[in-house]
Amino acid sequence: MKVFVTGVGGQLGHDVMNELHSRGYEGIGSDIAPEYSGIQDGSAVTSMPYVAMDITDSEAVDAVITAAAPDVVVHCAAWTAVDLAEDDDKAPKVRAINAGGTQNIANVCKKLGCKMVYLSTDYVFDGQGEKPWEPDCKDYKPLSVYGQTKLEGELAVSRTIEKYFIVRIAWVFGLNGKNFIKTMLNVGKKYDTVRVVNDQIGTPTYTLDLSRLLVDMIETEKYGYYHATNEGGYISWYDFTCEIFRQAGYTTKVVPVTTAEYGLSKAARPFNSRLDKSKLVAAGFEPLPTWQDALSRYLKEIEE
Question: Which CATH architecture has domain 2-176+204-230+274-288?
Answer without folding.
Answer: 3-Layer(aba) Sandwich (3.40)
